[in-house]
Design goal:
InterPro entries: Divisome_Glycosyl_Hydrolase (IPR052177), GH (IPR017853), GHL10 (IPR003790). This is Family 10 glycosylhydrolase. Keywords: Signal. By secondary structure, this protein is α/β, with parallel strands linked by helices. About 25% of the residues lie in helices and about 20% in strands. It is built from 14 helices and 21 strands. The strands form four sheets. The chain has a nine-stranded parallel beta sheet. Strands 1, 16, 17, 19, 20 and 21 form a six-stranded antiparallel beta sheet that branches. A three-stranded antiparallel beta sheet has the order 5-7-6, with no helix packed on it. A hairpin with a 5-residue loop joins strand 6 and strand 7. The protein is elongated and about 90 Å long.
């Protein structure tokens, strides 16, 4: 994919001002009194914190210490649960060049599926809640399609189906949903052939529709974004995916018009469509014309997705800099003028449900400052869509930047406190770094999280589940019923022990043969009692039902 922050010198300036304002002035000291007053050192109060009980370990109890049954003292219905548990946590799974999956082309089905399970288990075990899976790396398909041919990166030959046959996308969707994760399909809208894509077969669009494509100097082929048949083809692919598959999102990356480096620094070779436009009386200059080609297509896809399924998100991960000088301190590549991608317009117009600018730079890289760029994109979010930045996990591999990923996650949580989230690039780096993996699991993603809601898509919450309890020894068995389980994607059980803060469990439909779970009634050495519980139902767009706080006797 892709393509890094220094905090402004304001902190250093402030420090120097403070220091200079404290310069010692020469003064005449009076003689000390005969009986100097007693000097009392100021005491800084130490906050006394009552140690919270350990609620993770069931207490060792006898039957006599337990009530015969747990009764409900009071039930209080509230519009919101007691704590906020939402944060978008996603990772890209790249199939182009076999970056993430499968490890190489032509693997047998069983090995492909085994590798997919390993990746999904890693994400689930580290409390991610979404995966962005590349299904169209070069006008091909990692799923059964009547529009485009099977991908070389899957089978080693474009047009050849996997053996034994299966549909990889169906497999990925089912396995992701079992683990409570959304699956967004990632498409390259215009790339026709990648240099790692093997021999250009008869099934490739380069051979079947040569009029659609142009060759770039680096060996890639690119579909011309100005052509209506190109736009129609990619739109048909999107429509087909949304109609036939239970996807949660459609995702484009930063490749619209190609990077000029792909063509040796030369301009994109679209003279034919440009001259046709001018001959027909077109008034726009070439740059504006190219941007309009892309803008029109983005708006079209946005409408198409919602027409088919209103719960499917449409997201784009553009290059992280809109234009140099926006904001003033930023320098670097100009996606507006070079990729003809006006990502600022897409978020201003509300065409996308989420924007994931690829902010892959280091925190001490002044001209591409992570927090400065993130704040600029946040301020451009005039329609209150999601801004979830792309973060480069591979920075942990560089000496001196082992904590860069975690620092950027905390910056993101601080700056996007009302709607936190991020998408991680370079999953392989994390999986190869056991220390970073452990830090992520034990600290930054220690607890699971819900995908934040998207109220412009759907603001109707599911109905409240009805909760029942039954004490079995020291185990409180909790079951629940819901009037419309088809409206529920996940469940959240909230609970509180005496003297402790609220805690929670997120439960996935497919992990439960019945709607049941358990909690210990008494926990820890002090045998602390479970005092409150409550449950919410969560729908496909992240809406939570009302919360019924159940106070136990």
């Amino acid at each position: 994919m892709k393509t890094t922050i220094s905090y402004p010198a304001a902190v250093l300036v402030t420090f120097s001002l403070l220091f200079s304002s404290c310069k010692t002035q020469k003064t005449v000291q009076p003689s000390a009194p005969e009986n100097p007053p007693e000097v009392v050192e100021p005491q800084i109060p130490v906050e006394e914190k009552e140690e919270e009980p350990d609620t993770t370990k069931p207490a060792e109890v006898t039957q006599e210490e337990l009530p015969e049954e747990v009764t409900v003292e009071e039930e209080i219905i509230k519009s919101e649960p007691p704590i906020d548990v939402a944060e978008f946590r996603a990772a890209w799974i790249a199939t182009v060049a076999n970056i993430n999956w499968p490890s190489r082309s032509g693997l047998p089905t069983a090995q492909q599926q085994s590798e997919a399970i390993k990746l999904l288990d890693f994400l689930a075990n580290h409390n991610y809640n979404a995966v962005i899976f590349q299904v169209r790396p070069q006008a091909d398909a990692l799923y059964q399609s009547d529009i485009e041919s099977w991908s070389y990166f899957l089978t080693g030959q474009q047009g050849k189906a996997p053996q034994p046959f299966y549909d990889p996308l169906t497999f990925w969707i089912n396995e992701a949903h079992k683990r409570g994760m959304e699956l967004h399909v990632w498409l390259n809208p215009y790339r026709a052939y990648h240099t790692t894509g093997g021999e250009i077969s008869a099934a490739s669009v380069v051979k079947t529709n040569p009029e659609m494509v142009v060759k770039l100097q680096n060996g890639m082929y690119w579909m011309d974004p100005a052509r209506k048949d190109v736009q129609n083809r990619t739109a048909a692919v999107v429509e087909d995916l949304v109609k036939r598959y239970d996807v949660d999102g459609i995702h484009f990356d930063d490749y619209f018009y190609p990077y000029d480096s792909y063509n040796g620094g030369k301009d994109f070779p679209d003279d034919q469509t440009w001259n046709t436009y001018k001959t027909a009386g077109g008034k726009l200059n070439r740059g504006d014309w190219r941007r309009k080609n892309v803008d029109d297509f983005i708006e079209r896809v946005a409408k198409l997705v919602k027409k088919e399924k209103d719960f499917v998100k449409f997201g784009i991960s553009p290059f992280g800099i809109w234009r140099p000088g926006y904001p003033q301190s930023i320098a670097g590549y100009d996606q507006y003028e070079k990729l003809y991608a006006d990502a600022k317009k897409w978020i201003n117009e509300g065409w996308v449900d989420y924007l994931t600018p690829q902010l892959y730079w280091k925190t001490d890289q002044t001209a591409q400052s992570f927090p400065v760029l993130l704040n600029w994109w946040k301020e451009e979010n005039t329609k209150d869509r999601h801004i979830w930045p792309g973060i480069n996990a591979g920075l942990i591999e560089e000496e001196g930047y082992e904590n860069e990923l975690f620092n950027q996650l905390m910056i993101t949580r601080g700056m996007l406190a009302e709607d936190p989230g991020a998408v991680l690039w370079n999953l392989k780096a994390l999986m190869n770094d056991k220390e970073a993996e452990k830090a992520l699991a034990e600290n930054y993603f220690r607890k699971p999280a819900l995908v934040p809601p998207s109220p412009w898509m759907d603001n109707k919450a599911p109905k409240l589940p009805e909760v029942l309890t039954n004490l079995d020894g020291n185990t409180l068995r909790i079951s629940w019923q819901h009037p419309d389980e088809n409206d529920v994607f996940r469940w959240v059980l909230y609970f509180q022990y005496e003297g402790s803060k609220w805690d929670f469990k997120i439960l996935n439909n497919d992990q439960l043969s019945e709607l049941k779970t358990t909690l210990s009634y008494l926990v820890g050495e002090k045998k602390v009692k479970l005092s409150k519980i409550g449950m919410t139902a969560v729908d496909r767009t992240g809406n939570q039902s009302d919360f019924k706080e159940i106070i136990l006797e």
